[in-house]
User: Fold this.
Amino acid sequence: MATPLEKQPTLSCQHIFNNPDTAHYCSYIQVPGLLATFYPGATTVDELLLCSGLYAYTLWWNLQESELQVLLAMAGAGQAFSPEQCYDAIKRASRCVEVDRIMLQQGVILRSELLRHRPDIHFRFASANTSQLEKFHQVSWLTRQLEQQVGSFRLASQANPDVISQERMLDSLKDLILTHRDSFNTIQRDFTDLLWAVHEQPAPKVVNFEEVVPATKILSFSQQTMAKHHPQTLLEPQHANDELTFIMAHQAFEVWFPSVINSIQEATRMLEDRPARIWGAEGLARRIADIFSLFGRMIHIPQTMTAADYIAFRDQLQAGSGVESYQFRAIEISAGLRDLRYQHNIEKMQLFTPDLYLLWDAPNLNSTLMEVLVERGIFEAEDSPVEIAQKLSKVLKPTEAANQNVDIMALLEALVRFEQNVELWRTDHIAMVTRMIGRKTGTGAQTYSNLAENEEEHFDSLPYLYNTLKYKKIFPALWDARDYLHGH
Assistant:
């Protein structure tokens, strides 16, 4: 039987090594606080997707606002720019452009999932006025101000003859203005349409926007982290945006994770129903795949700073590492990752919290899928992996061919795309980490080094990330079946 939504374990940080005096990932990124702000009335997959999207908009616009304010302050100084200042301005402009691209892709997901059909949302907004999210209009206003003041970015004087670097800076600023002007129209449309869709949603409960999106509270968490772990940013706030970028990029992942976790678990429940709701699960699998495609772009945000920019404040992270994200562990486990090496690694690193043990023992998407395939007669429960792959390959027919299991084929293809995007994200993540901190071991979660049984066995984040590429597939039978397609 399907597990009721309210019976699912409520994820929380339960790491036994959580030290309030140490920059543990969960406390540094403020994960428990961020999750606590999620609107308690959001329980369906569509409601959680709405919250994740609106939270992410809030974070991204805040980051853009911070960068635009610095650029405007630089313009207002009325001085010729040194090459170093030019390069700094180029970095900030490029970051704003990259955030625009993220929000464009995010808008495609939200429009596709929440606007193309009547979403499963049981409340509606009292108003659809976009001014309810102040950051939205602030970013638009700052961009117009920057456009008006581009001429204030002075070219070289006789004392500073480096005209080339300043012209390169002006090109970047103009690119920001042109890109932002074009993309902001689309982002504005997506955001406005989303508000109107929820405002006009026929629902018995009417809520104010700030009840669902407590923007002030959401943004306060990054400031708390800055004050506690990066006190230098309080003395020089104009130089604080690299630290803010690092924090908010991780926070953006964490506010998206609840939607992914809930979608995986809801797809599992759909497959547990009798009859199984194959097409419903297929739609959620495509949704998850799209979100992981978005993650592939989001992982590049930390790279908008240089490695030296990051190293300048990295020691203040102490032993904290993203491998401690219990929500990402929940995604892997709920989907069905059951490689024994994975289990060994997260147990040795003491990342297996009580909540995650509950998920490990609960039905997962892959195991439930295999039960459905047996019930449909695709293969027998006692079949070997080779026999399962051979029989499953017969379901994978050309799309125009007659296929009594076309719903199954559609689901399998969506799940393969989901796992493919997870693997692409893992590869991009490793590339980002090695670009920022190099390829040496011992540069990650050193909290775990004392857990090793001998000096040669060292647990830290970089080897952990490399190991993720060696794990068995989440949906192994789906990939093995492709080995038998040729000649069938």
Notes: The first helix runs from residue 25 to 28. Confidence is low (pLDDT under 50) at residues 1-9, 443-459.
